[in-house]
Each structure stands twice: as structure tokens, then as C-alpha cells.
């Protein structure tokens, strides 16, 4: 489905008996993060879908040029405009794979449908930033090492406070905030949902953004490694919680 609204969701099919309460905890956290940040991006993408002649990349360039303070800050952080586009692609890799894993991991039909729609939106966001990255690279060429370091740096940042705090705020508002505790509580529930095809897709998107072939021996090895690392982390988190 392309453009969708909350009215498109078959809410009458909602069946709470099919909901896993552990999943509900992370969905609540995700809803806080989305409300805080993603609504804006969703509107951008809908605007593109509503008007096929809309050149998002050009409009985005204008917006960035006019929005000087933020632009300076992010450019300084990533080193270049191309670097910033790679970082944005990484955010969409994270969100699209997360919602795909959630879509495939839940049995409740309405939540599944919403996750399917959001996952498709996030893939579209990735494509928009990837297209913009291609344009940026024409003027602002950066090498593989730089591209990789920006990508891996942004992936590492994904473990930041935001989700841990959202998990805490959504589920444990009474006690004090303990970053380590809640980031582990969140990760333990989220990582359980990932299956190997999600990880393979995730690795392919990362490789594409840094300029490497998304389907290759390297991609296959990378996705196996990422899958093992994820399972290892999950096992450690589960042991820690026991
Ligand atoms: Fe997005």
C-alpha cells in the first residue's frame, strides 16, 4: 500500500487475545519515538506519493540549504553532505528492518497490518535518501572507508538513549531511569523478533548505501556474521535477565 492513513486500518479485526504482552511493551516504546520524530518524515513521503512530479531530492536540498544551523551541525558531524545521506539511510535500514521483523513476529492482525504499512514507508524513506545520496556523491565524492565509517558509526549510535528512555517512559514511569537496564530490557524483546531474512535484507541495504554490491559473497558472509552476532547478543541479554 502506498499512501495510507489510520482510516485504512481494519480496526474491527483487532483481536487482543493474539497479542503477546512482551511485544506490546516494545510497541508502546516505538509509538513514543514515532510520535516524537517520524510523523514529519511520513508526511514528506506522502507528499511525494500524492504528487508524482514532486522532486523530493531537490526540495530537500533547498530545505537543507535554508536550514543552515542544523545543516552545519550535521555536516560537521558526518564530514560531508554525502556522509549525512548515508547516516540517514542507516536510520531507515534500522526502522524498516525493525517494522518488518515486528510485522512477521506478531499474530494480531491489526498490528500486523500497521507494521506492514510502516515497514513499506520506511523502505520508501530509504529509497529517497539513497537517491539523494547518489546526487550528493556527484558533487561530494567520498571514498569507501569514509562511507563505511559513517555507516557503522550511525549504526552504533542506534543503541542510544532514545529507545531505552521510550521503553522506560512507556512501561515503567514510576521508578528511576536506569539507562543500561532499560536499554537491555528493550533490546531483549526487540531482538527476539528478528529472523535471518530480516538480517540479510538489512545487510544488503547497508552495503548498497556504502557503494558495495548488496548481493554477493561478501553480503552473504556479512549477513551470516550479523545474524550470529545478533543471536549471541540476545543469548547474553536473556542470561542477564534470568
Ligand atoms: Fe523513516
What does it look like?
This protein is an all-alpha fold and 242 residues long. It has one domain (18-241): Ribonucleotide Reductase, subunit A (Orthogonal Bundle), CATH 1.10.620. The protein contains ten helices and no strands. Helix 3 crosses helix 4, helix 4 runs antiparallel to helix 5 and helix 8 (179-191) crosses helix 10 (217-241). Fe (ii) ion binds at residues 38, 41, 92, 95, 122, 125. Fe (ii) ion is lined by residues 38, 41, 92, 95, 122, 125.
Features:
globular; 242 residues; binds fe (ii) ion; 0% strand; mainly alpha
N to C succession of SSEs? HHHHHHHHHH
**Approximately how much helix is present in the residues?**
over 70%
Under CATH, the topology can be stated as: Ribonucleotide Reductase, subunit A
Main β-sheet, in a few words? none
Q: What would you call the shape?
A: globular
Number of strands: 0
Compute the average pLDDT: 82
**Which segments are poorly predicted (pLDDT under 50) over 5 or more consecutive residues?**
38-46, 48-54, 58-71
Which cofactors or ions or other ligands sit in this model?
A: fe (ii) ion
Rg over alpha carbons: 19 Å
Question: What's the oligomerization state?
Answer: single chain
What fraction of the residues are assigned to beta strands by DSSP? under 5%
Which CATH top level class fits?
A: Mainly Alpha
| Spatial gap, N to C terminus | 41 Å
Amino acid at each position: 500500500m502506498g499512501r495510507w492513513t489510520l482510516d485504512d486500518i481494519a480496526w474491527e479485526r483487532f483481536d487482543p487475545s493474539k497479542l503477546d504482552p512482551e511485544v506490546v511493551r516494545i510497541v508502546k516504546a516505538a509509538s513514543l519515538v514515532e510520535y516524537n520524530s517520524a510523523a514529519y518524515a511520513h508526511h514528506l513521503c506522502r507528499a511525494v506519493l500524492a504528487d508524482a512530479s514532486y522532486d523530493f531530492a531537490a526540495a530537500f536540498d533547498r530545505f537543507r540549504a535554508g536550514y543552515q544551523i542544523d545543516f552545519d551541525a550535521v555536516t560537521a558531524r558526518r564530514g560531508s553532505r554525502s556522509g549525512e545521506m548515508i547516516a540517514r539511510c542507516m536510520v531507515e535500514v534500522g526502522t524498516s528492518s525493525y517494522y518488518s521483523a515486528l510485522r512477521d513476529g506478531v499474530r494480531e492482525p491489526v498490528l500486523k497490518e500497521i507494521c506492514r504499512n510502516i515497514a513499506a514507508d520506511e523502505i520508501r524513506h530509504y529509497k529517497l535518501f539513497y537517491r539523494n545520496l547518489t546526487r550528493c556523491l556527484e558533487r561530494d565524492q567520498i571514498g569507501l572507508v569514509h562511507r563505511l565509517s559513517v555507516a557503522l558509526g550511525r549504526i552504533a549510535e542506534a543503541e542510544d538513549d532514545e529507545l531505552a528512555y521510550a521503553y522506560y517512559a512507556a512501561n515503567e514511569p514510576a521508578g528511576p531511569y536506569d539507562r543500561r537496564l532499560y536499554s537491555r530490557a528493550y533490546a531483549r524483546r526487540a531482538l527476539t523478533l528478528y529472523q535471518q531474512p530480516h538480517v540479510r535484507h538489512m545487510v544488503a541495504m547497508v552495503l548498497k548505501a556504502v557503494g558495495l554490491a548488496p548481493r554477493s559473497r561478501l553480503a552473504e558472509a556479512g549477513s551470516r556474521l550479523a545474524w550470529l552476532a545478533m543471536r549471541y547478543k540476545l543469548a547474553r541479554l536473556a542470561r542477564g535477565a534470568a
